[in-house]
What we know:
- By secondary structure, the chain is of the alpha/beta class.
- The protein has one domain: 3-Layer(aba) Sandwich (Rossmann fold).
- Helix content is 29%, strand content 24%.
- It has a nine-stranded mixed sheet with strand order 2-1-3-4-12-11-10-7-8, with helices on both faces.
Amino acid sequence: MKDNTKSIALLSEYTPSFSPHASTNDAIEHAKAALGLDVSADWISTADLTSALFADYAGIWVAPGSPYKNMDKTLSTIRYARENNIPCLGTCGGFQHMIIEYARNVLGFKDAQHAEYDPYASNLFISQLTCSLAGRTMHLMFEPGSRVAAIYGATTATEQYYCNFGINPNYSDVLKQGPMQITGADAEGDIRVIEWPNHRFFIGTLFVPQARSTPEQPHPLVAAFLTAVTSQAD
């Protein structure tokens, strides 16, 4: 890393006209300005991911915009961040791929799959939602004492979604049996936030927090992620 600037890799197939990508850029700028953080961010196509990524980047944000060009490289990058205490934020499609990585590498479902890639897979952990959440704003509840509740300073929030896919309800109980913490749900109890315990920062949200960030009120999750990235020693 050059000087004292920390860099974040934004994993997705960047499309300037795609609203969640534009709001990701904006949310980073909001948090940087409000907190006075020295951090840069680069969009990296999942097709270009290599094992050398973490030599240049102190954290990863697995952004909306799936299906990604290379699912396996994306999952390997998420796994490395999870296992090596590297800050990782996953939103929308990023959350979904964090679930697949967890199912494959922690729960042992080596064929865990996402419906965008293989809708007829036998272990479909991520499936198409019966009712699309794209463009919807919904109420959330966080587990008291969780990292996400501490970040928000509350156990409830209202957030916006852009997704057509989510956790297959048939696998919800399976996901709750391992070490991953389920710390946020909607009014129906569907999983919306996950955290990896005892990690510097490893949080996934099905919603898109960056969509509700403003210069006057940077989103707390984005601010917490950037703080985790910049607080690391060189």
